[in-house]
Specification:
Helix content is about 55%, strand content about 10%. It has eleven helices and six strands. The radius of gyration is 35 Å and the shape is elongated.
């Protein structure tokens, strides 16, 4: 889940700022940038972040600023004074004028600035770093919670709507069985020259109608919907599990549609699918050769990359049409691809790139 957190702590005249941002990922992939002064605290910072953030591609950056008037750099006044006296003595001995701009001359001489930078952080600075890290992590988690609460409300509405549509099927189910029976008997009545065994007819009728019975599918679908809501309310991370449950919901809906044999029931199934598609993500264009550290199962299939490009375009067109929008903005957030050197044979022009994908 995406998020951002920032916190500041102060110690020994320094302001320590920690910024953490995260993107979606199945595992924790942590990238940490620390100034050399705080490098020894890297294991502690990593442990602090990993303890709370279970998943995500996480980037953490630490900045250190000197506070107040106590600068880490000072003028080396004794050396500057000695330089000036030597230059004045040289001017007298050589009979040359003294410089008009003493500042520019003296500031170019070696070691006129003295640095008091320490090579190791104090205990107070290390504690301030961990405190700022905890604050930034909490800020990111608060961001994630807000996003999660919105998703939870959205998913709950979709699941509730699928449950309402499932109950609508009951209205048409008995009517469907009666229609199927009437249609079969009407067809048999037209066969005037054939003698019908009514007992055998009833047996075949029962067998046929049982094959079209959807009670089991309705019960399983209802159980999956309840299980989805229960899982969503669990305290720990359940994203992967919710994905599996969504797939099972989709299978039961598809089975309902194939067995319904009734126009109104099939319309309800289509509306169920529309609700479910807002929970299950679209398939991605994925090539493991270019993203070694990732694996995906909800991916497009295509013989060439150009076929996947066309599928992406079709998804965008359908989204635009279904949502009734005039314009679609696509944000590219991937950052895990391997480096591919530029080859003008393939990357020189757009036409070269499209030809290579085909």
């Amino acid at each position: 889940m995406t998020g951002f957190g920032k916190a500041v702590a102060e110690a020994d005249g320094k302001k320590i700022t920690v910024e953490i941002k995260s993107l979606n990922s199945k595992q924790l992939d942590l990238s940490l940038r620390l100034p050399s002064l705080l490098r020894e605290s890297e294991p502690d910072v990593r442990a602090e972040i990993a303890h709370t953030l279970e998943r995500g591609k996480v980037e953490a950056t630490v900045y250190v600023e000197q506070q107040g008037d106590d600068s880490v750099a000072h003028f080396n006044m004794p050396l500057i004074k000695a330089y000036k006296e030597r230059l004045e003595s040289m001017s007298v001995e050589l009979g040359i004028p003294e410089p008009d701009d003493w500042y520019s001359v003296l500031m170019r001489l070696p070691d006129v600035m003295r640095s008091d930078v320490t090579t190791a952080a104090s205990d107070a600075e290390c504690e301030a770093l961990l405190a700022a890290t905890r604050g930034a992590v909490e800020g990111l988690m608060a961001f994630r919670r807000r996003e999660g609460e919105k998703l939870e409300r959205f998913f709950a509405q979709r699941i509730e709507r699928i449950g309402e549509l499932l109950r609508e099927i009951d209205v048409h189910e008995q009517e469907r069985v009666g229609r199927i029976r009437a249609r079969i008997e009407e067809g048999l009545a037209k066969l005037t020259s054939v003698e019908i065994d009514r007992g055998r007819l009833e047996q075949e009728m029962i067998y046929y109608i049982e094959k079209l019975d959807v009670n089991e599918e309705k019960q399983r679908l209802a159980q999956h919907l309840n299980y989805f809501m229960e899982t969503m309310g669990a305290s720990s991370s359940q994203g992967k599990k919710l994905g599996f449950i969504s797939q099972e919901i989709g299978r039961e809906i598809n089975t309902l549609g194939s067995k319904s044999n009734h126009a109104e029931m099939q319309k309800i199934v289509v509306r169920m699918k529309d609700e479910l598609e807002q929970i299950v993500p679209m398939k991605a264009a994925f090539d493991h050769n270019y993203a070694k550290r990732l694996n995906g199962d909800n991916v497009m299939e295509g013989k060439t990359r150009w076929e996947m490009v066309e599928q992406l375009r079709e998804d965008i067109r359908n989204f635009k049409k279904e949502k009734g929008v005039d314009r679609v903005v696509v944000l590219w957030a991937a950052s895990t691809e391997v480096y591919v050197p530029i080859d003008m044979k393939y990357h020189g022009t757009l036409a070269d790139l499209e030809a290579a994908m085909k």
